Amino acid sequence: MKYLESSYYLDYDHPTIQRLILEFKNDSTTQKEKAIGLYTKVRDQWKYDPYHIHLSKENYKASNIATRPTGNCVEKSILLVACFRAMQLPSRIHLGKVKNHLAVERLIEKFGSNELTPHGMVSVYLNGKWLKMSPAFNKTLCQKFNVAPLEFDGENNSFLQQFNEEGSLFMEYLEDYGHFEDVPLEFMKRNIKEHYPHIFDTNESMTEFKL
């Protein structure tokens, strides 16, 4: 099945990924429990950082992402897909565009907009259906902004944090770009350049931007 295959980016046979999933490699844990555990681990052990954009191929290898303490939504989604596939859980990357309504000052300063694109999510196939989730926002970050962290129960989608605890609008989905078998790096480059043209210096290659 194509959604179980490894690739240059989803290199789940790498020792770094194998060490990450080791605690879930036992017969007493169900596939549902493994999916929930891996989702929570990736969500919380890598702090969310949207302000560093690296567009080199090497940056999007799951084994490289796993060695860093932070990641943006796409990077954390890639890591989770690699972990899922390593555990024989069919999974794929899902991309879209979102608008953030809280703590937007730095986003607007750096990106010129409170719209984030591409926003990375994950779809996993469990018990005969595809379920979508977003592992981007770690629990400590959610606590800081008074937003309930997204919990995945293995039965339902878990990708939309629409309101904070006070009922204020937090996150809004604007566009759905669909799912991808592998990391669509060229699509991502075009998407970023289209939405944030000002961050690109025309005299340098599209490889890395620290905002």
Automatic annotation (TrEMBL):
Pfam families noted in UniProt: Transglut_core (PF01841)
Tree of life domain: Bacteria
Name by which UniProt lists this protein: Transglutaminase
SUPFAM superfamilies (UniProt xref): Cysteine proteinases (SSF54001)
Species of origin: Winogradskyella aurantia
Record domain Transglutaminase-like: where: 25-135
